[in-house]
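Revision sheet: structure tokens.
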Amino acid sequence: MKLATTTYPVLETIRKRWSPRAFASYPVAPETLHQVFEAASWAASAMNEQPWRYLYAHHADQETFQKMVDCLLPGNQPWAKNAPVLILALAKTHYDNGTPNGAALHDLGLANGNLILEATALGLHGHFMGGFDVAKTREVFQLPENLQPVAFIALGYLGEAEQLEEPFLSREKAPRQRKGVEEIAFHNQLPA
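Predicted:
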């Protein structure tokens, strides 16, 4: 496990959260997965709309799981195909009356944050992927127009880095890095 080295103290669960590509082969129990989705369901949302939706498949659900793998771009397929669970995170972009929900992506992000922190607290790890074919995903899963596919998530227990081939092995072993607080938070005014 690669703990984050922080400048300021943060919750231990935040320090433990990282995005591996190597997953152990054993499955995630349905109750555990439901607990992770329960955490997502309690995220804050504008107007309490709760615009997040999740479609998921266990590795054992061969047909649906393979459809998800096939929607990923080639840079994600070699390692994501070994995750015990793949999740498609979607945002409901319009209210039921047809008005656009400008906060839908933000709210899905909050739900995803809850999901991944709960997963981390349970000993799971997740890797979010924006590298997927949106049009193919829409077609394969027959998504209605008001559901926007936003990210796939590979979820499972941490595996051994050595099970990965390059360039993934090097990425797995690379140190974690983040911009310093002074690069992202500014008092009173943004720099010129």
